[in-house]
């Protein structure tokens, strides 16, 4: 027997809850299979609500007892929660439930990870802990007591008191249940103090398992820099006496902003030079900042309902990007952000899972923690800032914090403060929140009598449920260069609002070279025919660092596409341009490293599909390999010099400068390996004294062959370290040659250390393989079947992570009939499973629609 199909929830159906909560008191007696949770909740009728039905969410809870104002009641219980008659005046609800954290493999609610208790409540996990109006617009202060014989007992807010086997916490700031957290375990802290701009003394602790002691310094340092930055840039100070961060090994996402008690996937906390790469350090800094910034954009001001998710996520991603840009290189950060945006969000926007930044309906909210809500949401805020200017933005944000502190808000509230603070009408701009799909901006031009005209046309393709799109407000940052490379027009923002519009520039001596969409000023796809020579010119001369990179990237894309479709040889103009960038010592090494990276196979597949060509994953892979070898040969005279010059003597530092040098050095190493059979890479691997170099050299060996011995050595050296071994698993699946990828991945899944219930390990292998485009899209369909089998298996244990990984299939429709048929069959096989989760059910439905 199957359950009735789960019903979608609609934005338009929002109604407030019938009651307000004045206070929550929770009491936990922690036991692995029989935890008791007692809740005492003070309710009062909500004058703003019309519907007074008393319904509390609750899932997988065993109700032991319930009472209202001290008198026992017998509520009516369904799988989703309970209802009960209640007085028409304020009343106190009390309930005791039993739950089994040790049996909770979904990692949502209260669960156990490596002997410690921890919680994950966003979005709807609190209902697995006790009966409650588990919705973000119900905010209340929480007081929590934990009884447990583990030494460290944590919850939100400030510590009240503690003794042997118990601790009490009080969080004075009203919060929604999704921000509740509890942790109990044998943990050690790395600690410091911070004095806020308001004079508050805050104790800072990063808690890890004793085996990981010593690996929390960078996280703590990042936290301090984040706190300072938010005071300086946004005027936001921290508001409790303690700030705790806990590293957890089994975690579905990156991290979680629970009030005063952030819980992190351990991969975004733990770092030492020997075990973490430059990229890991950068991610730790960024995610620590992200969760900390949520204290104001998320916790103090939260979301009215989950449709407004981007209100906190888009804004907080935007804030953490600003922070990273300030801590590191703004230009490099922007390029990296756009690369991820294109790889993840454009891909999403262009496929069956496309949805607006503010979706209008969902079946399972966990499926909407997406690149669109996060990254496109952040881009929308970047555009808003560009349109109103930094001062207007600052005024709007001040108004937002002043007016909405302590509230659960909507996108309308957010836009309203911008309208009031800047006088700007944002009616049309709001379409960025409601229309899915990536706008295409087509550009043609003409030049006559000193007047240069750009003809601009915008069009957004249809997406599921949205056939017709209206024109959006697109800030197009433009600069003009003269043919000798001088800037004749510095960056100017054109506001494109119509379907067709001209931008006119007068008084020019000669036809300029346009530099369009500088800084990637809007998340759009630019369509413009331009000669390779012009792109090479911009790569050499553009003063906008993003567009300089972009010129090289688009040139590379063109070259690679010609190599795929016409079996052409790589254009010499491109190779010369790359050489010029590689040897330009005025450029940041990190920038040069980025410029030497070729567009990925999926990006090329997408570009081909965009032009109406069915992509052949094997041909793309082969062309990319040929291109790399051609670059290696053409720039051969440079590599040894670069490699020597980019050495980083002295102790390891994770800062942007050294990281950039290591990146460029490893890029050189990678190209050299195509000429020297990997000899230098073997030596680099053997001599590495930090993980960036060690894994960098290993990747080179995996790509060019001859990695077997290094892989064994690596496993012997790091077998005890889960996070390091995730890299070992992941790289092999991602970098396996197309014809071996399925077999290699299958072998990895049979490895005794493939602890697949751990999300990081599962993602490393199955996610790593899905990122191996030519392997995953193997013409036999074996790649699809392998992934489908594992999604089915994981879905029974952890629906949230399984469903998220089904996005491996989101591009299936762009391939040939043979592959399509096999991908579809694999998806249908998942869909047909009995007992499929709501999460996975919704995903495969959308993928197959
Ligand atoms: N809110 C978290 C963040 O963006 C993400 C998250 C969502 C974590 C759901 C866990 C569960 O920082
Ligand atoms: Zn977030």
UniProtKB/TrEMBL annotation:
Residues 437-528 form the Peptidase M1 alanyl aminopeptidase Ig-like fold domain. The lineage of its organism: Bacteria, Pseudomonadati, Pseudomonadota, Alphaproteobacteria, Rhodobacterales. It comes from the Bacteria. Its cofactor is Zn(2+). The keyword Protease applies. Residues 218-432 form the Peptidase M1 membrane alanine aminopeptidase domain. Gene3D superfamilies: 2.60.40.1840, 3.30.2010.30, Neutral Protease Domain 2, Peptidase M1, alanyl aminopeptidase, C-terminal domain, tricorn interacting facor f3 domain. This is Aminopeptidase N. Belongs to the peptidase M1 family. PANTHER family: PUROMYCIN-SENSITIVE AMINOPEPTIDASE. It holds the Pfam family DUF3458. It catalyses: Release of an N-terminal amino acid, Xaa-|-Yaa- from a peptide, amide or arylamide. Xaa is preferably Ala, but may be most amino acids including Pro (slow action). When a terminal hydrophobic residue is followed by a prolyl residue, the two may be released as an intact Xaa-Pro dipeptide. NCBIfam families: pepN_proteo. Residues 104-179 form the Aminopeptidase N-like N-terminal domain. Residues 533-848 form the Peptidase M1 alanyl aminopeptidase C-terminal domain. Keywords: Aminopeptidase, Hydrolase, Metal-binding, Metalloprotease, Protease, Zinc. One of its GO terms (molecular function) is zinc ion binding. GO terms for biological process: proteolysis. Its EC number is 3.4.11.2.
